[in-house]
């Protein structure tokens, strides 16, 4: 799961470079999601052995349907809670993808443990049990399809990301619902593929799941480039208003330049200087996202308060840092 977590975290470079307090909040929410995720799984699992083969088949179909709806609802609720109570953490599609991916990874990690245990015991219709059962389940769930749950939840994340950026009131309500329905549909197709045996599973895997994952990556790359252009324009307007030095924008927005600036700060002043540079860059990025919402006419109610806080952080840190080849900033 660690490589998958790294991949999803790198979808959103701005979120990846959050300061420690915000990172801790995101991690706390992620681990709380693990606790919530266990509930619907346990509720739909039973060790009772059906009396007949027909009863077993019926039971499995009903469980697949319930799991498809309840699991995506459980994961989606976290994103809705985040949208409601931690609205400042969401700035667009990339944030939606990143948080959805982390929730899906946490869910899959917990679910895989339960499935591996059931496979080893041979309970809940999970096969012959023992080493053969657990090996088969491990290969299918942990090697071939660890990205399944993050992929399903990504549709809900996209819907949430659209909701926080659109100026259309109706779309703010419709986008998350459509995203959730797409997540349920994708999850249902994945669960239904096992009904048709190995051919159905591998066919769905190769012709639906892998292309969907590739499309998700392409969407993330496009969104990253769009966010970079958006931040450059928003901070350029903020610089004209005297909120941030215009000469600093490149060192804040360009990912390579951001790393070079932090490396330069560490070389000149050690760890403390690097942290000061990181704080400055993040405050400027947050100001850029907020100012973009102001320019679009979708500024939050606490726009002035948050904007003043970002500007105060920028002004407090700026005299203590220096960018490569730059001595005196210009506005």
Topology:
Layout: H1 2-9, H2 13-16, H3 20-43, H4 53-85, H5 93-121, H6 130-144, H7 148-165, H8 169-192, H9 197-240, H10 249-253, H11 255-296, H12 303-317
Helix pairs in contact: 1-5, 3-4, 3-5, 4-5, 4-7, 4-8, 5-6, 5-7, 7-8, 9-11, 11-12
Brief rundown of the structure:
The chain has 331 residues and is mostly helical.
What's the shape? elongated
- What distance lies between the first and last C-alpha atoms, to the nearest angstrom? 45 Å
Care to count the β-strands?
A: 0
Domain count: 2
Sheet-strand content, in percent, reads: under 5%
Mean pLDDT: 81
- Residue windows where pLDDT falls under 50 for at least 5 positions: 19-32, 35-47
Profile the largest sheet: none
Oligomerization state: single chain
H/E element string?
HHHHHHHHHHHH
Give me the Rg, rounded: 23 Å
Q: Which secondary-structure class do the elements indicate?
A: mainly alpha
Brief descriptors of the model:
331 residues; 2 domains; 12 helices; 79% helix; single chain; mainly alpha
Describe this structure in words.
- The structure is a single chain.
- The protein is mainly α and 331 residues long.
- Helix content is 79%, strand content 0%.
- It has helices spanning 2-9, 13-16, 20-43, 53-85, 93-121, 130-144, 148-165, 169-192, 197-240, 249-253, 255-296, 303-317.
- The protein is elongated, with a radius of gyration of 23 Å.
- The model is unreliable at 19-32 and 35-47 (pLDDT under 50).
